[in-house]
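Appendix B. Chain record.
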Amino acid sequence: MDTNPNPPAHDTDSGDYVSRAILRHEVDDTALEEAMIADLDRALGHPARRHVEAGTVLLQEGEKPSGIAVLIDGQVELTKTTPEGELLVHVASTGRIIGLTSLTRTGRASFTVRATSDATLLPISFAELDRVLREHPALAHRFVHVLVLSLSRRHRRAVELQVENTRLARSLAEDRDRLEQTLTQLEEAQSQVVQSARMATLGELAAGLAHELNNPLAALTRAAEFITSDVTDLLASGPDGGWRMQALERARQQGPMSTAEQRRRRAALAEALGDRDLAERLLAAGIDDVDEARSLLEGLDAAERSALLTELERLHGLGEAMRNLRESADRISGLVQGLRSYARAGRDLVGGVDVREGLDETLRLLAHRLEHVEVVRHYEEVPEITAHPGELNQVWTNIIVNALDAMGQRGRLDVATRPTDGGVEVAITDSGPGIPPENLDRIFEPHFTTKGGRIAYGLGLGLSICRQIVRRHGGQIDIDSQPGRTTVRVQLPPKPPRSIAEGNDHASREDPSR
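Structure tokens predicted for this chain:
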């Protein structure tokens, strides 16, 4: 291989030299660059060199130089100014010719050139370069070849940077995805911690409240039974006990009457008897049948009639009070039972759970918000399942509270159950305005809320927690929404996955108090 850096004796042979260097690679790049420098030095008459120290700026970006410089020894770097600061572009790929890009039509430097070590340069003005290239064709060939080599190195470096940027971008994207996944997991873990803490607090409060209510409730229930028994015995043993007992029992068995119904019956009595005041008193005594009223009052003078009606009104009021006492005791008993279901949250899995009972307990607890809501139950026979009843009641509570909020406490709420492959499906449908499509996909995200940008901390824990509870039970929760109708469906298997059961057993072993 011919590595002689000296040019051929005649220009006609320089083409063969360039061909061997470019096409056949028989001359290495360094030898070619050294030969070009030697040619330039001879052609220019051995001009003075320029010696610079490390850190010297040889060419400023955007500057329009008067010539180029050939690097004889030393090292330089090329940097580019960016909005983020100075970016290092080339070091090893800089090449021998400084001011390379200023040879373009713009004539301005694209980079800032700075010496990174003490260096020696051969400065050449554009006029001198033009003259020697015209006078020495062999030198021109070598100069062009060195230009091509320099551009090739810079191009390869640019490609390498692009490849590296692509790899880094992909790596950053993967890191971002992992971070997002980790953030989601952290949010879910945080939600679970919040849920566990709130469930524990709620369970303690519910258990304490249920315990405190239990004794007065028992006393209230016994008192209601004693009063009913004693009053009925006293009435039955007295004179005319039959009609008095009948008046009392009528009031005990009758349900509450709406104001509209009272007006209708009063008007009918007043029209039949021709006496509005009398109709008012008869209705207060629980009598709304015209024939019964006439039979009761027949043959009585005004004083006797007034005395009888007064006694009937008192008996009717006493019967209503006894009925209200019994119903209030039953209602408090139902609320205490509902509170106990929350107190069971976080304890061992329970077999034989009927989701319909949990739904009814939840509806009883939320009765104060259902006064203007039509609640329709569609309960099919469903199998009992193994579950955490307190956690499931949290799910029902949150879904129903969301439905009531959506409806503005007015509308229709349908609660349905049906069997599914040994498990059960619960569907809760409200007549609210529906969930916008853009929010439907985000409804289960942690901390996402449509309640005026705030998170409500009531009995509900958010749909993300509901989904976690349902998934831990091996089930799934879905929402279907359109204007005027939103349905939340929860499907639960006969038993939760083995992992939840094993985790629960482990927790029980750690906490013997359970």
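Further analysis of this model is presented in Appendix C.
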